[in-house]
Amino acid sequence: MTAMTASVLNNFADLALSLPAPSLEATIKQNPAVVDSTGYDGRTALQKAVMIGNLPVVRTLLQYGADPNLRSQSGETAVHVACCRGLLNVVVTLLKHGGDPMVTDSAGRVAIHCAAIAGSLMLVQYLAEVCEVNLEAEDSNGCTPLHVASSCGHLGLVNYLVHSKKVGRTKVDAEGNTVLHCGAAGGVSGVCWTVIYPGAEQLLTIPNNAGLTPAQVAHASTSVSPDCRKWLDKWTRQYERSGAVESPRWPWLIQLLTPATMFYIGVFLSVFGVPHHQWVTGLPLFILALTIMARQQHRMRHPTRWPNPIYLGAYGSGLVSTLACYVFAVEAHKHQPIVISLLMWILVLVHSFLFYKLLTCDPGVVRAEGPLQEVLRGVGEGVVRGYCSDCELASPPLSHHCRLCEKCHHQTDHHCLFLNTCVAVNNHWHFVVFIMTNIGLMSGYIYAAYKATIPKTATGDWVERLWAQLWYLLDENLWTFLMLVCNVASLIWGCYLLRYQFQVIGSQQTTLCRLKLGAPLSKLTFREKLRNIWTFLIRGRVPLSNQTHYFNPV
Predict the structure, then answer these.
(1) Environment class of residue 327 by beta-carbon count within 10 Å: exposed (0-12), middle (13-18) or buried (19+)?
(2) Residue 553 above 50 pLDDT?
(3) What are the Cα distances from residue 177, in Å, to 143, 284, 428, 486, 509?
């Protein structure tokens, strides 16, 4: 035995990862007992390989008899280490070679606790469904995986444990901490909301062994965000006052109705306050409403993080206001030709129907196929790809999980903020035709409003008449003026949106597909694009069957 070989055998656990595969196998064959030797830190070569996620070395060591249940000095096994790293493929390999997910470490934690520390929703689901690990297992301090996930701020995992698996939220650990105490210490307001609502609001006032309520725990910690402290204080006051916590449905409704409310307040103040100088009051309120709209985010400022409905409210109120203005302020002053009027009302009916369909129909939600246990087993073995842990299903190609809708959809085009829903395979055709009818309605309104509001006393060239009409609208008919501004801006945006939709559809893509893959590598001819657009308009589906001209075939 050479000196180098003797050094490797004596320090195998520390040097194993640096050895080439043939040398590693040769060393183990020369002295099989070395495979479970420990290094300077008390860990085996297997635990070190798991720690860095080196799956080939893990497989080699297990093939030659490495024990996956051997504890390190801290009491961790290789399974614990893999779960703390959230490495599903490594965990599956260890379990196939005899790894036990129920072995406890020095703190009494089993594999499910370590997976909760990592926040790996997929790994927790695998352990729960395939390995049938108890989701309410307690460590030596009485903490369940829900306690651990809450203290670490893993919102997705907490939501899964509370809503999908109905894990008990009232258990306390050895220090008297409820799940809400752990969530308060973790400092994520969304976690705290998920824990208490609905049905566990009483946790807000339960003290731990130190006499601290969750809100007091949040204030005592320097790492908790002010946002979490604010919400815990607010919910605690609400529960102490009324025995319940307010649902975010009312704030959602207020957000939805804000655009219409602000607009009509401005119109009414203008008409009845200063009827001959309406712009004095109406225009500042309109600018204020636009400023509020511009500062909005995609989600509500509530721990639920629901999609913000203010954009839907803005479009809905704009549509209703345009129709009302057309009826009472345009047609009432100057009757349109019967053909144009009839065409406008046909477009109104078609557009309203499409709007209703887009708001209520299923965009193309992906449904689960087969038992979840079998799907997860396939994920662990690498057979099933594209698994969505949020929806607990194997998502097919060209599907996408929307974080706002919290669902997977087939052939997702995009999430439309002005419809508060996704545009996908089932409603993509409705969306494109919706844009077309919208352009027709806006064009008809702009033309009718322009003709109906030309001052009879205006003289001079067309520029002078246009300025006279502008000042007449600002002073005497601000409602019509504001609707003209909104419709002109929306018409420009709608034409751009329709052009882009035809561009991606003509290239046999969706918007999301274009963002992921880029433009087609080989350019299609204009005739081919027209044929694809025509096929879409007739069949209602984007013709995605031929993917050979993409950068990367899907």
Answers:
(1) exposed
(2) no
(3) 9, 52, 49, 54, 52
**Where are the alpha helices (H) located in 274-404, listed in sequence order?**
279-294, 310-325, 338-360, 372-380
Query: 150-153 — which CB contacts under 8 Å span 24+ positions?
Result: 150/179, 150/180, 150/182, 150/183, 150/186, 150/191, 150/195, 151/182, 151/183, 151/185, 151/186, 152/116, 152/117, 152/119, 152/186, 153/183, 153/186, 153/187, 153/188, 153/191
1-134 is classed in which CATH architecture?
Answer: Alpha Horseshoe (1.25)
Nearest alpha carbon to residue 116 among 155, 174, 73, 77: 155
CA separation for the pair 167, 154 (Å, rounded): 15
Pairing state of beta strands 393-394 and 387-388? antiparallel
Write out pLDDT tens, residues 21-59.
888 888 888 888 888 888 777 888 888 889 988 899 899
Nearest to 197 by CA among 143, 158, 226, 230: 158
Whole-Å CA distances, 500 to 21, 123, 413, 542: 53, 40, 12, 14
The whole-angstrom separation of Cα 213 and Cα 96 is 44
The reported pLDDT for the residue numbered 1 is 46
If you search the block for the tokens 């606790």, which residue do you land on?
113
pLDDT at 401: 93
97-104 long-range Cβ contacts below 8 angstroms, 24+ apart:
97/62, 97/68, 98/67, 98/68, 98/69, 99/68, 99/69, 100/68, 100/69, 101/127, 101/131, 101/133, 102/133, 103/69, 103/71, 103/77, 103/79, 104/75, 104/139, 104/140
Cα separation, 119 vs 123, whole angstroms: 9
Among 424, 402, 399, CA closest to 413: 424
The helix, strand and coil proportions of the chain, stated in percent and rounded to the nearest 5, come to: 60, 5, 35
What is the rounded CA–CA span in Å between residue 183 and residue 151? 5
Reading the block at residue 269, the tokens are 């103040």
| Mean of pLDDT values over 153-179 | 91
Residue pair 76/111 in contact by the 8 Å Cβ criterion: no
Q: Which CATH code, of 1.20.1250.20, 1.25.40.20, 3.20.20.30, 3.30.1330.60, is assigned to 166-246?
A: 1.25.40.20
Same topology for domains 1-134 and 166-246, yes or no?
Answer: yes
Query: For tokens 């995009």, what's the residue?
Result: 414
Residue 350 has pLDDT above 60, yes or no: yes
